[in-house]
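Complex 347.
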Amino acid sequence: MSKIFVDACFGKETPYTPVWMMRQAGRYLPEYMEVRRRAGNFLNLCHAPDMAAEVTIQPVDLVGVDAAILFSDILVVPNEMGMKLDFLAGEGPVFEKPIVNEEDLNALAGGDEAASKLSYVYETIKILRAQLDARDDEKALIGFTGAPWTLATYMIEGQGTKTYNICKKMMYSNPALLHKILKKVTEVVKLYMEKQIESGIDVVQIFDSWAAAIEPSKYDEFSWSYMVEIAEYLKEKYPHIPVIMFPKGIPAFLDKVYGNFDVFGVDWSTPMALAKEKLGDRYVLQGNMEPCRLYSKEETTASVEELQAIMGGKRHIFNLGHGILPDVPVEHARHFVAECQRVSKNA
Ligand code: CP3
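Predicted structure with coproporphyrinogen III bound:
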């Protein structure tokens, strides 16, 4: 059964342009908050396949998106490599003991040892595969990973950062160690995504949320080349599984984008027309409404119509240009999805 979302990722013509939202399963949905309460906390929820599957499906049923994205977090990977992780209320993720030197890195599990420990993710995917196959609405299931660079920022800083000074100090004063970290993470992620595919996902997305922290002339060396290595490893083995790359905030790198993958995720700071001009022939483009437009239905409609005018319903997937925020009214998210489907229907 061919799914409209998968067809769109490969640039095939579809009856309308499919839509989903980054971070679509989460706190803006009261139904999510209820399941999280039952789970006790966010990490417990990631570790409980039945509940993780339940919140994965919620935005499909409640908001009408064309694809479900696996409910998990990018940071379960370093967590299962052996780094103790907490999500502190109001502060976000914190690793107890960040990587400072090579001994710290060597103490972490790598390769298949780490990838195998993520069994609860594969279990969640298997439940979702069965649930989605039992429906007749052809919704796709997106699996994901963080890019090695974005994961490394948390592994080195220990938490979110505004300045990235600790990992950038490593980038400029001990690049060999940073490359060793990136390499080890890349090897785990390749196997992790392979196991996600074997468990039943339809599409892969690689999130490089902190791409913009790297100066453009260093971006390929410290991030993009590792993302491409992962994408090419997967495309070689699983050519029927589309790969979406989402490097956030790197318009200066658009001219240098290369690699074997299918969809380029355009963040909200990059003009869609520019992305189309630079990349539209080679990659399907995903995005890119400013997520804060969701606070106004009128601004949402205006953005959707503008994106439709630029892309013309061709080689495009509607999405936000980054994640939906927790205080967006559900009704507005529903409006966004309905507008994308409306404007593209008879394109
Ligand atoms: O709906 C979906 O998109 C699927 C689930 C998903 C989550 N995190 C759930 C989550 C996905 C795809 C992610 C990816 C993720 N996690 C990224 C990359 C995407 C992006 O937004 O750039 C990053 C950088 C993280 C790391 C992370 N996880 C941070 C910084 C935080 C705290 C900040 C925040 O948004 O609260 C998290 C927590 C997190 N991950 C939540 C959710 C629903 C909130 C936890 C809660 O319920 O309290």
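Residues 22-27, 36, 42, 69, 71, 73-75, 87, 92-93, 144, 146, 160, 207, 209, 323 surround coproporphyrinogen III (CB under 6 Å).
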